[in-house]
Write a structure and sequence with these properties.
Chain A: Belongs to the CDC50/LEM3 family. Chain A: It is found in: Membrane. The complex is a heterodimer. Chain A is of the alpha+beta class. Chain A is 34% helix and 17% strand. Chain B has 41 helices and 33 strands. The chains are: A alpha+beta, B alpha+beta.
Chain lengths: 350, 1164
């Protein structure tokens, strides 16, 4: 018996069998889960989804409604300045404009101030690529070889710092907010730093290494539309100057759509404004530099409070409610159709 | 080389050597040739073109690597696949090319590798060698330059054929003479009638016509001939080509819309925006900008048909091929051959087959004749065993009969009824006489290599089976001389004097021998033994046999019902005086100058009369295992099976019955045997009329159809009621395939349930397949085992070769090979069906996911000034198709199963969606595209609605481009992952791993790409730094993703469920409803139990050829040594050769078989 046993495998070894392995994988017999769309799973999915969507939607709508927001189109209100800026020869002439508005209710909590632009195509392909991130990282790069064209160098070969269409078109209005309190005018304290992403401020944007900022940018020139060079963007705060200037960083984070708003300032919650903006009369003092009428654009200044879901945007809440309602309704329709069909089925079986 | 062969038709194509080369590359040429071939593919050129576009800065909307990474990947994978394929081809080429052959070089024979044999060489073949090239027979070891060949590989006939060298060369018997031979051969190109060969030999200023009779064609085997010399000639083969062309109309359409949009935008808005964003250099008008934007959008939108589609399809096909190779249920243990998918591109077509063209010999049948039953003196033997051989495996059979008492018994012969042997041992005179007849009445030659080791050379396997049966039952045919036959009867050597052989022919359908025991006249005196077709023989019996005849007829009917071939045996004692008289007359008749045949026939007729019935034999033409069941299941799956065989009509029809293609329940079997165009047309017309009459009489109101022209017959004939079958002969088929009749023929044939074409040439086989391919637009499959099936296998969409047998030509030409016909049902119903299903699901999902992915750019175009700005990060675009979404859909495409495999066999109807192409037709294609577009709309507009004017919870802007890109990309990956989860019906561990793994990979890669480290290294490439953690930390973003997913997926769930609930497919029903399953099962069983009340099919040794009786009596085919022993008197010789050649010549002119007129005699 022993001999026989040992003989068989030897023979098999001598002539390797061409017989396929009997493994579950090769024979397509892998254990598997075979999900089925049954009436129970489908209906429970629909009703659960419906309930979930409805509740999320209602939460969103409720919280969005608690947001206070005020939006002022100042390119219309400051039409004189708008006209002045239409002619680029007047670029040197300062144009100031003030816009009054009244808050009927308090804006409690953190209040954010945005500038909004309409019809400004920051998402155009040629615009989006027109930057040199290596340059903005403080590296000494040849901007000629970047996508910055035509805003790379001046005719004399001096490179622009920062280069590219995005940087060149940076929003350069200054907006100050004044609170008219008991006939005295109080300037609302605004925070100009801490508005950008931490990664942008600390990773993506770096100034060139040098003993001081102006020497770091030596040999470069400001972009053609800029009134002052990049190292003078914020003379008061060394950590908000050059490429790491918050306004610059925010501008460089291009928008996905032609109508957008960028965070400009936050209200510093001090003294009168510790709880936010109290109701009353306010004035925006705007130094109007950024031309928009030429491309039929509009400029806004926006004040808004914030909740967990961001600012005021009713879309998501409404979409959730509609979706939840639709899911629930579909659940009922499916139930109805299925019940009708089941009658048919039993008839058929007979 | 002392002489020249020149082929007019092929002088341009003439190869230098006989080397078989199917491989395409060698190491040096691989890279350039393979790349060149790959870029000949439209798709690859298209992607190369895209790559070039991307290098133009004004157009480039995507970085070059988004195209080059997948392209290089594709090219590499394809190249590796091609290289491995080619490696195996090299291996098999070498195997063929390294066969040895003896070549005559400057007067001496040398061993040469086969590849070195050139056209014009003279080679020497020895017995049992394969003829591996077309040869002109020059001379042979046998007298008169004769040689015997077996052409089973070519036409399926197993009987031996005689070939003869032309007289002038037949004398060139030795190498020295042959070395001086310098002739020139001019041959015609192959024509419609491949069995006809026309050519001329020019030698010594004389012309000698050549015919097929002088040719040894590639694929034959030399038999019973010690050696022969042949001249290698060359005949060109046909070449075939195929096409492949994808359509990119949609892409261009989208591109044009967006380009027009761009031109208008630049004209209206962009002009004013120039202060911030001036136009590129060289762009001076909005129109030109639009033109550039068209190309930019072509680059972006090309992902609707990404390169990865081609790779994924290849991978899936490869996977399916491996499953075929690995299938244990398609492994034949006996022949030790697994199934093999030799091409990977056809797997899904296996699920759509509508027509199967099958060879007979070696495919449906095993080409083994088995003595299965017999009826002796009204007693039937052999009943213990089951009819069909396949039952043997069930272990129900008792032990086979032990023949050990007989030292001369053939150990391979098996019989299961011990009562027959007992009857022999008890000395039943009828049984003895029965076997004596079998051992005497035949034309078999015996060869005794060593004492007791007998080999029979039977001219037809039927006869071999009968003589072998007699041998085992103790009546051993030992040897023969022209005048005697020596038989060992139960150990006693008895020599019979062979007085006459009354030879077989197709009209007589019987043969007889007249003999007596040599020497002492103790025996029964002169006796005539006759065996033949029952229809003929039963009429020639003595009236006293009436009772026995009735019993035997019952037995015959029973045997015929089991699909056995029957013969009736009878004998007659002859008065010596009568015999002398008759023999005298016979001698005179055979010497007669005219009407010799007629006179002989009359004499034969006279003596074969008033015979005494001995019994009947039943021979089983052994079918391959499981053939009737397979055919039944395939028929239920709505696949039409046509048998195309080189065999005779009787054999083919018989097999048709035994494998249940033809049944006696059929309304009618039309037999088309016309010899002229008119006859064939008339027969076809009659057949159609009969079918239409029948359906009219069924009251279906078809009367108006009479006015329809024959081209409109299709619709009419498809509605035919009743089951019909069509049997058509090769010579009729030649007419039916002519251009003006082919449609008529096709429509008639397609209205029939079964079609059998017999005596067809290899080329005709291909033509029939081509005809169906041309007009029916259906997927065709050809299955065969021999060289004669190669053309058919190559012509059909799918070629299947039966492997594990001697010849490998069919396998080499095939796309799939396995060793048993029965595996075809598994190949089609399981593998083919799954492949089709998986490929369809794969394609649907693939187009869906890419439309969902790509069309977002289209919608975004309306918001970004049609500037060809992409919505996603370029790395996402690069990786979407090759990493994030490729593996789950691949896993589905490779592993998905809708119903378990045994169900596809139980419900052959499940195969029908494939034939009708229900799962991926234009409609389904548009549905998935529509779903993709719907998804893309939501994918863009929901985030758009949320993001416009929205801010983050920390007050910063939310709607920046990069956050938007990440949000859309993430929701897209999640939505398509959920969708693949819905589509996957069979979640193996691999599916789980791939789906969850892909999601995990997406997030891992996302965070890696947006990490500080990469940005520090390549700041201009990885601009999304910090984006992932900033964006995905926002609850709004996640709520957006969740909403998008719900809105994209829920409608799909609702529609799928309602479709399932209201209009379930059979596969759904099979999957879900136990009740319907049971119902179908009983139906199925009923089908299998259909009993057969057989109509009797009898004929003498179907593949028998006339003339061998005379050959034996003349002694020409016997070796001189054996002839020397017997003093045989010289008879008017050479007449048998004349007979043989006349037969051949006469039939050659009508381009058909030796069966000739006999074909008509069979009436079903």
């Amino acid at each position: 018996m022993k001999n026989k046993k040992s003989f068989a495998p030897q023979e098999a070894e001598a002539r390797p069998s061409r017989c396929p392995d009997n493994s579950a994988f090769k024979q397509q017999r892998l254990p598997a889960w075979k999900p089925q769309l049954t009436i129970a799973t489908v209906l429970s999915t629909f009703f659960l989804t419906g309930a979930f969507c409805l509740s999320v939607g209602i939460c969103l709508i409720l919280s969005a409604n608690s947001v206070r927001e005020i939006q002022i189109n100042y390119s219309d209100k400051c039409s004189d300045c708008s006209k002045l800026r239409e002619n680029s020869y007047n670029w040197n002439i300062e144009c100031l404009c003030s816009v009054d508005f009244k808050l009927k209710e308090d804006m409690l909590g953190d209040v954010f101030m945005y500038y909004g632009l309409q019809n400004f195509y920051q998402n155009h392909r040629r615009y989006v690529i027109s930057r040199s991130d290596a340059q903005l990282l403080g590296r000494d790069v040849n901007v000629q070889r970047s996508y910055c064209a035509p805003f790379t160098t001046y005719n004399n070969g001096t490179p622009m710092a920062p280069c590219g269409a995005i940087a060149n078109s940076m929003f350069n209005d200054t907006i100050d907010l004044f609170y008219n309190f008991n006939s005295s005018v109080i300037q609302v304290p605004l925070l100009k730093t801490g508005n950008s992403w931490w990664t942008d401020k600390n990773v993506k944007f770096r100034n060139p290494q040098s003993h001081n900022l102006s020497s770091a940018f030596a040999g470069t020139a400001r972009p053609p539309y800029w009134q002052k060079p990049v190292y003078l963007l914020d003379e008061e705060d060394e950590r908000n100057n050059g490429y790491i200037n918050d306004d610059f960083i925010i501008w460089m984070r291009v928008s996905a759509f032609a109508t957008f708003r960028n965070l400009y300032r936050r209200i510093s919650r001090k003294r009168h404004f510790a709880d936010g903006l109290p109701a009353g009369n306010y004035t925006f003092h705007i130094s109007y530099n950024f031309p928009v009428t030429k491309f039929k654009g509009k400029k806004y200044v926006i004040l808004s409070t914030m909740v967990w879901s961001g600012g005021s945007n009713p879309f998501l809440g409404i979409a959730y409610v509609v979706c939840g309602a639709a899911a629930t309704l579909t659940g009922f329709i499916i139930t109805a159709i299925h019940l009708k069909l089941r009658k048919k089925k039993t008839y058929f079986q007979k | 080389v002392p002489w020249l062969s020149w082929c007019l038709a092929s002088w341009l194509l003439r190869p230098q050597s006989n080397c078989i080369k199917t491989s395409k590359y060698n190491i040096v040429t691989f890279l350039p040739v393979n790349l060149f071939e790959q870029f000949q593919e439209v798709a690859n050129t298209y992607f190369l073109f895209l790559l070039i576009l991307q290098l133009i800065p004004q157009i480039s909307s995507l970085s070059w690597f988004t195209t080059i990474v997948p392209l290089v990947l594709v090219l590499t994978i394809t190249a590796v696949k091609d290289a491995t394929d080619d490696y195996f081809r090299h291996k098999s080429d070498n195997q063929v090319n390294n066969r040895q052959s003896q070549v005559l070089i400057s007067g001496a024979l040398r061993q040469e590798q086969w590849m070195n044999v050139r056209v014009g060489d003279i080679i020497k073949l020895e017995n049992n060698q394969f003829v591996a090239a077309d040869l002109l027979l020059l001379s042979s070891s046998e007298p008169h330059g004769l040689c015997y060949i077996e052409t089973a590989e070519l036409d399926g006939e197993t009987n031996m054929k005689v070939r003869q060298a032309i007289p002038v060369t037949s004398e060139l018997g030795d190498t020295s003479k042959l070395a001086l031979f310098d002739g020139e051969v001019i041959c015609e190109p192959p024509n419609n009638k491949l069995d006809k060969f026309g050519g001329t030999l020019y030698w010594k200023e004389n012309k000698y016509p050549l015919s097929n009779q002088n040719m040894l064609l590639r694929g034959c085997v030399l038999r019973n001939t010690e050696w022969c010399f042949g001249l290698v000639i060359f005949r060109p083969d046909q070449i075939q080509a195929d096409e492949h062309r994808p359509i990119f109309g949609f892409l261009v359409c989208m591109g044009v819309i967006l380009a027009i949009g761009n031109a208008i935008w630049e004209h209206e808005v962009g002009v004013c925006f120039q202060i911030y964003l001036p136009w590129d250099e060289g762009v001076h008008s909005a129109f030109f900008s639009g033109f550039l934007s068209f190309w930019s959008y072509i680059i972006i939108l090309n992902t609707v048909v990404p390169i990865s589609l081609y790779v994924s399809v290849e991978v899936i096909r490869l996977g399916h091929s491996y499953f075929i190779n690995w299938d244990k249920k398609m492994y034949c243990a006996k022949r030790r051959t697994p199934a093999e998918a030799r091409t990977t591109t056809l797997n899904e077509e296996l699920g759509q087959v509508e027509y199967i063209f099958s060879d007979k010999t070696g495919t449906l049948t095993q080409n083994i004749m088995v003595f299965s039953k017999c009826s002796v003196n009204g007693h039937s033997y052999g009943d213990v065993q089951d009819v069909l051989g396949h039952k043997a495996e069930l272990g129900e059979r008792p032990e086979p009969v032990d023949f050990s008492f007989n030292p001369l018994a053939d150990p391979r012969f098996q019989f299961w009824d011990p009562s027959l042997l007992e009857a022999v041992k008890l000395g039943d005179p009828h049984v003895h006489e029965f076997f004596r007849l079998l051992s005497l009445c035949h034309t078999v030659m015996s060869e005794e290599k060593s004492e007791g080791e007998l080999f029979y050379k039977a001219q037809s396997p039927d006869e071999g089976a009968l003589v072998t049966a007699a041998r085992n039952f103790g009546f051993v045919f030992r040897s023969r001389t022209p005048k005697t036959i020596t038989v060992h009867e139960l150990g006693r050597a008895i020599t019979y004097q062979l007085l006459a052989i009354l030879d077989f022919n197709n009209i007589r359908k019987r043969m007889s021998v007249i003999g007596e025991v040599l020497g002492a006249r103790l025996g029964p005196g002169i006796r005539l033994y006759c065996k033949g077709a029952d229809t003929i023989l039963l009429e020639r019996l003595h009236p006293t046999n009436q009772d026995l005849t009735n019993v035997t007829t019952d037995h015959l009917n029973e045997y015929a019902g089991e699909g056995l071939r029957t013969l009736v045996l009878a004998y007659k004692d002859l008065e010596e005086s009568y015999y002398e008289d008759w023999s005298e007359r016979l001698h005179r008749a055979s010497g007669a100058p005219e009407a010799r045949e007629d006179r002989l026939a009359r004499l034969y007729d006279e003596v074969e009369h008033d015979m005494m019935l001995l019994g009947a034999t039943a021979i089983e033409d052994k079918l391959q295992q499981g053939v009737p069941e397979t055919i039944a299941i395939l028929t239920l799956a709505n696949i039409k099976i046509w048998v195309l065989t080189g065999d005779k009509q009787e054999t083919a029809v018989n097999i048709g019955y035994s494998c249940k293609m033809l049944t006696d329940d059929m309304t009618e079997v039309f037999v088309i045997t016309g010899h002229t165009v008119l006859e064939v047309r008339e027969e076809l017309r009659k057949a159609r009329e009969k079918m239409m009459d029948a359906s009219r009489s069924m009251g279906n109101g078809f009367s108006y159809q009479e006015k329809l022209s024959s081209t409109k017959l299709t619709s009419v004939l498809e509605a035919i009621a009743g089951e019909y079958a069509l049997v058509i002969n090769g010579h009729s088929l030649a007419h039916a395939l002519e251009a003006d009749m082919e449609v008529e023929f096709l429509e008639t044939a397609c209205a029939c349930k079964a079609v059998i074409c017999c005596r067809v040439t290899p080329l005709q086989k291909a033509q029939v397949v081509e005809l169906v391919k041309k007009y029916k637009k259906a997927v065709t499959l050809a299955i065969g085992d021999g060289a004669n099936d190669v053309s058919m296998i190559k012509t059909a969409h799918i070629g299947v070769g039966i492997s594990g047998q001697e010849g490998i030509q069919a396998v080499l030409a095939s796309d799939y090979s396995f060793s048993q016909f029965k595996f075809l049902q598994r190949l089609l119903l399981v593998h083919g069906r799954w492949s089709y299903l998986r490929m369809c699901k794969f394609l649907c999902y693939f187009f869906y996911k890419n439309f969902a992915f790509t069309m977002v750019h289209f919608w975004f175009g309306f918001f970004c000034g049609f500037s060809a700005q992409t919505v996603y990060d370029q790395y996402f675009i690069t990786l979407y198709n090759i990493v994030y979404t490729s593996l789950p859909v691949l896993a589905m495409g490779v592993f998905d199963q809708d119903v378990p495999e045994q169900r596809s066999m139980e419900y052959p109807k499940l195969y029908e969606p494939g034939q009708l192409n229900l799962l991926f037709n234009k409609r389904e294609f548009f549905i998935c595209i529509a779903q993709g577009i719907y998804t893309s709309v939501l994918m863009f507009f929901i985030p758009y609605g949320v993001f416009a004017d929205a801010t983050r919870d920390d007050g910063a802007q939310l709607a920046d481009y990069q956050s938007f890109a990440v949000t859309v990309a993430t929701s897209l990956v999640i939505v398509v992952s959920v969708q693949i989860g819905l589509d996957t019906g069979f979640w193996t561990a691999i599916n789980h791993f791939f789906i969850w793994g892909s999601l995990a990979a997406y997030f891992a890669i996302l965070f890696a790409m947006h990490s500080d480290g990469l940005f520090q290294m390549f700041p201009n490439q990885f601009r999304f730094v910090g984006n992932a953690q900033n964006t995905l930390a926002q609850p709004t973003v996640w709520l957006t993703i969740a909403l998008t997913t719900v809105v994209c997926v829920m409608p799909v769930v609702a529609f799928r469920f309602l479709k399932l609930d209201l209009k379930p497919e059979l596969s759904d029903t099979v999957r879900y409803t136990q009740l319907v399953r049971k119902k179908q099962k009983t139906q199925h069983r009923c089908m299998r139990r259909v009993g057969r009340v057989g109509s009797r099919r009898s004929g003498y040794a179907f593949s028998h050829q006339e003339g061998f009786g005379e050959l034996i009596m003349s002694g020409k085919n016997m070796r001189l040594s054996s002839l020397a022993l017997s003093g045989f008197a010289a008879r008017p010789s050479a007449s048998w050769i004349e007979t043989l050649r006349k037969k051949k010549g006469g039939e050659g002119s009508t381009a058909c078989s030796p069966s000739g007129a006999a074909d008509k005699t069979l009436k079903v």
